[in-house]
Amino acid sequence: MDGTVLVADDDRTIRTVLTQALTRAGCKVHATSSLTTLMRWVAEGKGDVVISDVVMPDGNGLEMLPKIAQDRPGLPVIVISAQNTIMTAIQAAEAEAYDYLPKPFDLPDLMKRTARALEQKQCTPSDAGNTSQERPEELPLVGRTPVMQALYRLVARVMNTDLSVMISGESGTGKSLIAKAIHDFSDRRTLPFVTATAADLRDLEGPARLMARVRGGTLLIDEIADIDDELQARLVRMMDTPGDHVPRFMATSQSDLTEAMENGRVRQDLYYRLCGATVHVPALRERVDDITLLADHFLAREEREHGAKRWFSPDAVELVRRYSWPGNVRQLENAVRRLSLTSRADEISKTEVESVLGSQPEAEPVLGNGEREKLSASVERHLRRYFDLHGNMLPPPGLYQRILREVEAPLIELALDATGGNQAKCADLLGINRNTLRKKITELDIQVTRRRKLM
User: Fold this and answer.
1) DSSP state of 198
2) pTM of the predicted model over 0.70
């Protein structure tokens, strides 16, 4: 890399790590813990790229972006932040940051993005609309896991485009909330947001009434795979002849839309009209580390509304984390609301949680919920998220070997467990040569002592 990078972060360790990494890569680096110093450097014409934290001792990094754009048009700014919420991602996108990464960030990924910014040295401005308009103070989307961070970045990228959006996910994951968030923070926020169901389309005049209601805003088609073929055909005609005020089309589905199209449940022509961008909302069991965060969020909301402060005991927290939550966020929200209202003490006990969950669908181990899913589908799902985490960048080179290693190690470990550590039996079970197995055990640093046979 060739160029000068300005780094602003109040964390000395981060400044040191970035300075060392960028210097080794061939860059000149100026690092500071002060936004005032950063803005002085920018005004003086220093730097080809800026890497800035959001919360700084003397200000907010996001609030400095318009000033940087005014003083140095085209200077790329990469925002890094521990406030890894969808609001931060959206605010960074609206302020026309070159890129946004939540902390903790992947250093090689940040280096790649910096190199790309240095090569471009000018980001293309986009019309972010009138950001002074009134907006919701808080989005009902909570999560800090990598899969949610990838979702936030994707939402921020598609927000101000005219692409149709297909939002998939299980019941209760928050698909409609994602659709509403995209609308409420887009250029169409002052226009209507209309949700359409099959009932709205059964009348021949239904599509025309919908278009009159939406008036160029956003039209969300709820559960597209549940709409019959005749009504889907009306949707296609409606999308092809929208009239003078073309709305943005979005749709939700609990089903895999590709599979639904292949099975004939979704028309091919409708599928391709709706899948301008696809957003998958993860199930709660796929982001276990967000469960307690969500539970605390719902308890805090109940305290604001009803004045009763509640919290979970440690063993209650563990039970909440281990429950599979087949109804996802909606089920968790309802359970927390009930516990907040019925708990006999300020601290919610494990017994009370067990009592509430006893009336819910049967709890299963969180890690066992993929049993009905084909292995290939599960692998594809995880790989797709891995690619999504890199946004519009490619993952680091060597992906094939990294994925093989991720699969080989647990496979061999499980096979050794199943055969009680007998390498001859393990090799036979795997269908490989015993010498090959020994080589793999050494390469993957697999411990072969005290193996137990799986029952």
Assistant:
1) T
2) no
